[in-house]
């Protein structure tokens, strides 16, 4: 009795065709490895190319379905095409203005799910070019770009999506990886990676009061040559499910380090006083330090001014309604909200305090690189300058 003829399932045929299109091996070799004839594999490839998702329907002659079945089939085919285009665009970072080599890589990654012919047509590359690329293997340049992209992605998520291309480029330089800023920007764009965006926020301090106002001694000159010469202070708010939480900070302009901070449920003057007292305990500054803030009642009230006088600090205040006069503090709050607050809702004030504490004392002061101090963290900047 002769050997019984083997019947191949739809899945087997699809996987055989997929293997022949993605492995880079000759059809003859793949057919031999699978125990099928070369002509059979060529027939399957041709059917897949001509019929796409309708290929390999099964045994026997299939009668045409009714009108409803035909509509369902067409809708399923259209849905498959839409999914394919969506996945390709996702891989391409939302656009198709990229090199052929990158397109070939996308096709190879998605070949397990979609027709290579359809993907080539959508990406406007030839199938012969794709197969030639598979046979040649990855170029050294493509390999370097792929490895660099993986490193960039790792750094991006390591810093919780807070870094854009300039800071990512700086981190790569620290690791001894040489590449241009434009290359980092291009790869991040292709991967859809971008730093979190700014939002607008309301003013929290009230400058409508009868307390005396100090002159603006800084006049937007924020360059300082040593620690504890100029401090800036400000207050912001944080939304939680339990209500508003307020954060007061004191920043040393020399290193942009947050040297004092406190969080409170109210906007009374005590929140500003507590932050300043923390800064004084931490830094023990000499007489003559300039303390700059806005004109808010928390900074203009008698109790706060007495604390400044006891420590022989010189008071400076921004002009009326001009946030640029205290832009370093405003910039910190903007960074805090982009990197720590915008993408979440704090369920409790305790949770907000915990995460903001971690951000200030660990992420911001000790890890985060700052463009104004040579892409170093405030802590490292001070240590380096003091040891010089």
TrEMBL record:
<feature type="coiled-coil region">
    <location>
        <begin position="65"/>
        <end position="92"/>
    </location>
</feature>
<dbReference type="GO" id="GO:0015074">
    <property type="term" value="P:DNA integration"/>
</dbReference>
<dbReference type="GO" id="GO:0003677">
    <property type="term" value="F:DNA binding"/>
</dbReference>
<dbReference type="Pfam" id="PF00665">
    <property type="entry name" value="rve"/>
</dbReference>
<dbReference type="Pfam" id="PF13276">
    <property type="entry name" value="HTH_21"/>
</dbReference>
<comment type="function">
    <text>Involved in the transposition of the insertion sequence.</text>
</comment>
<feature type="domain" description="Integrase catalytic">
    <location>
        <begin position="223"/>
        <end position="386"/>
    </location>
</feature>
<dbReference type="Pfam" id="PF13333">
    <property type="entry name" value="rve_2"/>
</dbReference>
<dbReference type="InterPro" id="IPR036397">
    <property type="entry name" value="RNaseH_sf"/>
</dbReference>
<dbReference type="InterPro" id="IPR002514">
    <property type="entry name" value="Transposase_8"/>
</dbReference>
<dbReference type="InterPro" id="IPR050900">
    <property type="entry name" value="Transposase_IS3/IS150/IS904"/>
</dbReference>
<dbReference type="Pfam" id="PF01527">
    <property type="entry name" value="HTH_Tnp_1"/>
</dbReference>
<dbReference type="InterPro" id="IPR001584">
    <property type="entry name" value="Integrase_cat-core"/>
</dbReference>
<dbReference type="GO" id="GO:0006313">
    <property type="term" value="P:DNA transposition"/>
</dbReference>
<protein>
    <submittedName>
        <fullName>IS3 family transposase</fullName>
    </submittedName>
</protein>
<dbReference type="InterPro" id="IPR012337">
    <property type="entry name" value="RNaseH-like_sf"/>
</dbReference>
<dbReference type="InterPro" id="IPR025948">
    <property type="entry name" value="HTH-like_dom"/>
</dbReference>
<dbReference type="InterPro" id="IPR048020">
    <property type="entry name" value="Transpos_IS3"/>
</dbReference>
<dbReference type="GO" id="GO:0004803">
    <property type="term" value="F:transposase activity"/>
</dbReference>
<keyword id="KW-0175">Coiled coil</keyword>
<dbReference type="InterPro" id="IPR009057">
    <property type="entry name" value="Homeodomain-like_sf"/>
</dbReference>
């Amino acid at each position: 009795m002769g050997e019984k003829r083997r019947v191949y399932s739809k899945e087997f045929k699809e996987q055989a065709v997929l293997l022949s299109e993605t492995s880079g091996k000759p059809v003859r070799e793949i057919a031999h490895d699978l125990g099928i004839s070369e002509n059979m594999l060529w027939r399957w490839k041709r059917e897949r190319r001509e019929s796409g998702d309708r290929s390999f329907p099964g045994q026997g002659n299939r009668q045409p379905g009714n009108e409803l079945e035909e509509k369902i089939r067409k809708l399923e085919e259209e849905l498959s095409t839409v999914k394919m285009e969506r996945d390709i665009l996702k891989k391409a970072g939302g656009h198709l203005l990229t090199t052929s080599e990158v397109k070939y890589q996308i096709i190879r990654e998605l070949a397990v799910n979609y027709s290579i012919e359809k993907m080539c047509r959508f990406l406007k590359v030839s199938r012969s070019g794709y197969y030639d690329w598979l046979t040649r293997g990855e170029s050294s340049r493509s390999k370097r770009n792929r490895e660099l992209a993986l490193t960039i992605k790792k750094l991006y998520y390591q810093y919780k999506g807070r870094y854009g291309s300039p800071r990512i480029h700086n981190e790569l330089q620290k690791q001894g990886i040489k590449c241009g800023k434009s290359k980092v920007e291009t790869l991040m764009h292709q991967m859809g990676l971008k730093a979190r965006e700014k939002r607008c926020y309301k003013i929290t301090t009230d400058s409508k009061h009868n307390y005396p106002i100090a002159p603006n001694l800084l006049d937007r000159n924020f360059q300082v040559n040593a620690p504890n010469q100029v401090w800036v202070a400000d207050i912001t708010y944080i939304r939680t499910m339990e209500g508003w939480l307020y954060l007061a900070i004191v920043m040393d302009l020399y290193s942009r380090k947050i040297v004092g901070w406190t969080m409170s449920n109210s906007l009374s003057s005590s929140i500003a006083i507590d932050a300043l007292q923390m800064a004084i305990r931490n830094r023990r500054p000499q007489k003559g330090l300039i303390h700059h803030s806005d004109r808010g009642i928390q900074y203009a009230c008698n109790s706060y001014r007495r604390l400044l006088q006891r420590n022989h600090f010189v008071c400076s205040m921004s002009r009326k309604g001009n946030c640029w006069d205290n832009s370093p503090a405003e910039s910190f709050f903007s960074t805090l909200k982009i990197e720590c607050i915008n993408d979440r809702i704090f369920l409790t004030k305790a949770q907000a305090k915990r995460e903001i504490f971690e951000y200030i004392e660990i992420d911001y002061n000790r890890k985060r690189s700052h463009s104004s101090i040579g892409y170093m963290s405030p802590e490292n900047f001070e240590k380096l300058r003091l040891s010089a």
